[in-house]
Amino acid sequence: MKSLPSCLAALLLLLPSVPLASAKHIMIPNTSFNSQADFDTDWNYLYPWGSDHNGAARMSKSQARLSGDGTLTLTARRVDGEKPASHGGQQIPIRYLSGAVHAKEHFNVSRGGGGYDFSGEFRATTARGTWPAFWLTAVQGWPPEVDMAEWKGSGKISFNTFNTSSQVRARDVAYPSPGAFHRILCEVRDHNGRDVSVKFSMDGNVIETQYGRGFVGQPMYL
Ligand SMILES: *[C@@H]1O[C@H](CO)[C@@H](O)[C@H](O)[C@H]1NC(C)=O
Ligand SMILES: *[C@@H]1O[C@H](CO)[C@@H](O)[C@H](O)[C@H]1NC(C)=O
Ligand SMILES: *[C@@H]1O[C@H](CO)[C@@H](O)[C@H](O)[C@H]1NC(C)=O
């Protein structure tokens, strides 16, 4: 395949943050993809650490486009002649350019009832070989990682929380009508002063709650 539309996201709106239930505060408004100026207030292109991660795609600003209707479109494109990525001591051939964006803000669940709601509307392909994702990952070390939604080209949508690389709660469910937008909501809360609870919903239906060990006080990238 020459080119694969990879993921469209609209209305990334977040989140209360603060210990007090009354102190709900929107950190990234649902207008943040309306214009370049709105985007630049809250987002940067690529991954926080650069253009490469652990797959066959290299992120490029050219593959992330504001469509002018409040939608961000991320598109993968087949390329030849890119230099390989290196990840975990491995050389990974790069076959695609694709798009990623990350929030300028870091998210740190504070002790004492703190938390965030991460919400957005996504239209994601489930074509084989693609891997669109809406996820949180550690700023320092690793984990925390919460895959608030990822589509691994299987036709399903996955919701995952990692305690370690081998201790992970991973839930795959059927992904209805990939051609339509679906609303993902991920409610991340201090559970017991140490661990966080993560309640995943799709289109208003709760999928399940997972727990991340020791995520309280650990800043995360979106
Ligand atoms: C966008 O956010 C505003 C303020 O929180 C809210 O009133 C509005 O309903 C939201 N729009 C959509 C389409 O979610
Ligand atoms: C996270 O927030 C807590 C306060 O809730 C603070 O004590 C801690 O230093 C923060 N961690 C980082 C790495 O910013
Ligand atoms: C991760 O750690 C939390 C807190 O200890 C625990 O509740 C959860 O079951 C663990 N996840 C897995 C997959 O073991």
TrEMBL record:
Annotated transmembrane regions: none
Keywords from the UniProt entry: Signal
PROSITE patterns: GH16_2
GO molecular function, one term: hydrolase activity, hydrolyzing O-glycosyl compounds
Coiled-coil portions: none
InterPro entries: Beta-glucanase-like (IPR000757), ConA-like_dom_sf (IPR013320)
Signal sequence interval, chain numbering: 1-23
Protein name: Galactan endo-beta-1,3-galactanase
Organism per entry: Chaetomidium leptoderma
